[in-house]
Amino acid sequence: MAYSDKVLDHYENPRNVGTLDKDDPNVGTGMVGAPACGDVMRLQIKVSDDGIIEDAKFKTYGCGSAIASSSLVTEMVKGKTLAEVEAIKNMDIVEELALPPVKIHCSVLAEDAIAAALADIKAKRAATTKATA
Amino acid sequence: MQLDFSNNYFELFELQTVFDMDVSVLDQRFQQLQRVLHPDKFASASDAERRWSVQAASRVNEAYQTLKQPLKRANYLLELQGLMLNEETDTQMDPMFLMEQMELREALGDVESASDPFAALDKVSTQLGSQISDSADAFLASATSEDWSQARTIVRQWQFLEKLRQETKSLEARLDDAET
Known about the structure:
The complex is a heterodimer.
Chain A: H1 5-12, E1 27-34, E2 39-47, E3 53-61, H2 64-77, H3 82-86, H4 90-97, H5 104-132
Antiparallel strand pairs in A: 1-2, 2-3
Chain B: H1 9-12, H2 23-36, H3 47-68, H4 70-80, H5 95-109, H6 117-144, H7 148-179
Helix pairs in contact in B: 2-3, 3-4, 4-7, 5-7, 6-7
C-alpha cells in the first residue's frame, strides 16, 4: 500500500518525539493501544495554568500511519486551548494525512490518545483543586 | 464421509470445545481428515461431490490453523461466546500494561546497538516468553471458570505480546543474517 507524501514526511521526520515528565502536575499523559495491530501510542501534553498547550511529545510503536497520526497530532495541539483540542476528531487527521480506509483506525488511536491525555490532566487538576480547597 | 459444517472447529476434529488440548491429537485428526478429503479420492466423483470435498478441505484447513495456535484458539473460543475484541475501535487498555509494552518495545529497539545484541535479544525474548505463557495460563483459568470478560481482557493483551514476539523473531533472523 502506498503512503501519501504527508504520511511519509511525518514518518521519516517525526515531530516532537520524546517524553515529558509524567509526574509534572502540568503534564497530561495518554497511553492507548490497538490490539488488532499491537500498536502502542503515548501522547503527552504540557498545559499552562491558563489552559494553553505549550508543548506536546509522542512515542509510538506501530505502522507508518500510526506514527504519522501521532506526530501530526503533536503539531495540531500546540498553542491550542484544552477545549479546542477536545474538538479535534480523527477525521481531521484522516483528511490532513490522506489516510486510506484501512488506516483510519490509526487516526482513531491518535484521537483516543488526545482524549486520554486530556482526561489525565483534568484528573490531575481536579485533585490539586481539591487538595488546596 | 460425514462432515457437518454447522459443527464448530473443535467438533470438526471430535475434540472438546475447551482451550486446553493435546495438540498431537489435533495433528493426528487433521492428517486423517486430509487423507479422506484428498483430491485423488474424488477423481471419479461427481462435480457436486468434488466441489463439496474442496470446500470441506478448506474448512478443515482453516479450523486446523485456528486451533493449532494458542492465541488464535483463545480468540476463537471468545468468538463462540459471541464476544468481539473490538480491536480497532476500543483502545482503552490498562495503562500499566501499555507502559510495560512500551518499555519492552524500547528494549527491543536498543538490541541492535547493544554491545552483545544476542544477549540483549535473549533477555527480551525470555521476558516475553514468560508473559505469553502467563497469558495462556490466565486465559485457561478464566475460560474454565467462565469468566469471559476477564478472558477477553487477557486475549486483548496477548495480541500485543504476540505482535512483539513476531518482531523479536524477525530481528533474530536479521541478526543471524548479519552474523554469517
